[in-house]
Specification:
The complex is a heterodimer. Chain A is mainly α. Chain A has one domain (12-354): Orthogonal Bundle (ABC transporter involved in vitamin B12 uptake, BtuC), CATH 1.10.3470. Chain A is built from 14 helices and no strands. Chain B contains nine helices and twelve strands. Chain B starts with a strand and ends in a 7-residue tail after the last strand. In chain B, strands 6-7-8-3-9-10 form a six-stranded mixed β-sheet, sandwiched between helices. In chain B, helix 4 (115-125) packs across helix 5 and helix 5 packs parallel to helix 6. The chains are: A mainly alpha, B alpha/beta.
């Protein structure tokens, strides 16, 4: 009995490892291919040469300066940023769905994206700026401030006397703040009288990786990796929420503290991601569901697999966004929804047939 | 493990002090005994269990487990000593029976123990070993309840608390479940609605009314026509079970006593 259980357990753990290894390989390959795609097409082996040379693995004299510039300076930060954003959004969505036991929870639950949009609008349309910051950086700062402000209001509205953040009230507080922010955004856009204001705001909201450089990309990668590691270390506690709050508490989980830390922590992660790349929808909502259907709901497997799946999805979404229409970028949110929704629909149908 | 509650009270939180749900309960539970907690709806059975399990902090009084104050233990430490099977704990997730039972090892995580062996043993004791790889969603009510019992046993608790564990089970599964619990020999407190079941399986009965203990003692001393009239407002005859000799309630239809 014991040995059989151990064999089964071992098999399950191997398959988690196998999934992580395969997906990591897929992610690295996707990133390399993506770095070759664009106005100037660069073969895969050249991409590898550029990266290997930059990492000090050899001289690779055949690489031209132009190829080096395109791959390493222009495309790689963007590809890395896309991967980090996808990973971050996917794990944050997974955690929020578990903590609130709400299938519709996504990373923007606590009003972060609507707050960020108001901040972005303030910069894009009202022209707020801080001396010494370029337009792009100012947009990031504005969105981040907006996101944090919204988060603070949501937490202040929802926190109970004992310092708890009950899921339902938190979700509703997020709705309240989201509505106010949406009204503010709409008012500013309409009142500005600028013909293309709505278009600029919409395109920011739908997200873009354009213009990401190394420092931002590395920052996003650090944020995403930290998020995955911290959440992964709470995996068993998150599993304990399967049968609800009091069940988790009776299993020794300090539910109020864990929920507060994770809700606020993931909202901060989301604020960082949104500030750089816009409120990219769909990834945080759907990737966790897809991974749950395939890998089951336990977080030790769900979290790393969702992170990698989200990363791969956004790398390809960004690649499509900048290559489908020549000379023009489609917002990445449009691509994630257009590609992701049909996949999700297929999985839903399969599940419906089995049940 | 001996469990002692002293002058335990729990008040609903409210601005000017809310309603008293548990009102000065003293309870001393002997190691290895099976105590039945009886009382009408709203008498405070579930609340008492949630205070005694450590989920709720009492307004006054203490719960001691051996020498330790239960509410001063760290949550994980508490969950290694006391386990609770709730009334209807359900999930929408696709978990197997084994995965649910493994949740019982959460409070022991990172202590390098043979979890798989303990989980297998818990499933065997609760008789869900055969169901290990079945999905929770496909289980019957009785199987779900036994799975919860196995999860609680996987916590390796010294005290087991059951909140109306036989609700929604058919007669066979009710008997089966209580016999299974009784056979474990763990200190157990179970809130029960069915007086005959309580009489048949418990060593001792505690009756709550409006948050206070109104009767406490062995089965025959507690289950009297007077108590049933007082607490439940029901007229009944108590007779000896023809087979076990334990008390059996024979209630009188329409027999609200006045």
């Amino acid at each position: 009995m014991t040995s059989l259980a151990q064999v089964r357990r071992a098999r399950r753990e191997v398959s988690t490892t196998a999934a992580v290894v395969v997906l990591t390989g897929a992610l690295l390959l996707s990133m390399a291919v993506a770095a070759g795609v664009g106005a100037v097409s660069i073969p895969l082996d050249t991409v590898f040469s550029v990266v290997a040379r930059r990492l000090g693995l050899g001289s690779f004299d055949a690489v031209t300066v132009l190829e080096d510039q395109i791959v390493w300076q222009l495309r790689m930060p963007r590809v890395l940023g896309a991967a980090a954003t996808g990973a971050g959004l996917a794990v944050v969505g997974a955690v929020l769905q578990s903590l609130t036991r709400n299938d519709l929870a996504d990373p923007f639950l606590l009003g972060v994206s609507s707050g960020a949009t108001v901040g972005a609008v303030a910069v894009l349309i009202l022209g707020f700026s801080i001396a010494g910051l370029a337009g792009g950086a100012m947009l990031t700062v504005g969105a981040f401030i907006g996101a944090i402000a919204a988060l603070v209001v949501v937490v202040a509205l929802a926190t109970g006397r004992s310092g708890s953040l009950p899921p339902t009230r938190t979700v509703l507080a997020g709705v309240v703040v989201g509505q106010i922010c949406a009204a503010a955004t709409a008012f500013i856009v309409i009142a500005s009288g600028q013909g293309d204001a709505a278009r600029r705001v919409l395109s920011w909201t739908l997200g873009s990786m354009a213009g990401l450089r190394w420092p931002s990309a590395i920052f996003l990668a650090v944020v995403a990796v930290l998020a995955v590691l911290v959440i992964r270390s709470s995996a068993r506690q998150l599993d304990a929420f399967a049968f609800g709050d009091s069940s988790a508490r009776s299993l020794g989980v300090a539910t109020e503290r864990l929920r507060w830390l994770l809700l606020v922590g993931t909202a901060l992660v989301t604020a960082c991601l949104v500030a750089y790349t816009g409120a990219i929808g769909f990834v945080g909502l759907v990737v966790p569901h897809v991974v749950r259907i395939i890998c089951g709901p336990l977080h030790q497997r769900l979290i790393p697999v969702a992170a990698l799946a989200g990363a791969v999805l956004l790398v390809w979404a960004d690649t499509l966004a900048r290559s489908v229409v020549a000379g023009q970028e489609i917002p990445i949110g449009v691509v994630t929804a257009a590609v992701g929704a049909p996949i999700f629909a297929i999985l839903l149908r399969r599940q419906a047939r089995l049940s | 493990m001996r469990l002692r509650a002293s002058s335990l009270s729990w008040q609903l939180p409210g601005r000017h002090g809310g309603r008293m749900i548990i009102d000065g309960v003293d309870l001393d539970v002997a190691p290895g005994s099976f105590t039945g907690l009886l009382g009408p709806n709203g008498s405070g059975k579930s609340s008492l269990l949630s205070v005694v399990s450590g989920l709720r902090r009492p307004t006054r009084g203490t719960v001691r487990l051996g020498d330790d104050d239960l509410h001063r233990l760290r949550p994980r430490e508490r969950a290694r000593r006391i386990a609770l099977v709730e009334q209807h704990a359900a999930t929408g997730l696709e978990l197997t029976v084994r995965q649910v039972v493994e949740l019982g090892r959460v409070p022991h995580a990172g202590r390098g123990i043979d979890n798989a062996g303990i989980v297998a043993e818990a499933m065997k004791l609760a008789r869900v070993g055969e169901l290990a790889d079945r999905s929770w969603q496909t289980l019957s009510g009785g199987e779900r309840q036994r799975t919860h019992l196995a999860r609680a046993l996987a916590q390796q608790p010294q005290v087991l608390l059951l909140d109306e564990p036989t609700n929604h089970l058919d007669l066979g599964h009710q008997l089966d479940f209580l016999a299974c619990v009784r056979g474990l020999g763990i200190t157990t407190i179970a809130a029960l609605h069915d007086l005959d079941l309580a009489a048949a399986y418990c060593d001792r009965l505690v009756v709550l009314q409006a948050g206070r203990i109104v009767a406490d003692g062995d089965v025959a001393a507690v289950l009297t026509p007077e108590l049933l009239a007082d607490v439940y407002g029901v007229r009944a005859t108590v007779q000896a079970h023809p087979h076990t000799g334990r008390p059996q309630i024979c209630w009188h239809p329409g027999g609200v006593d006045d």
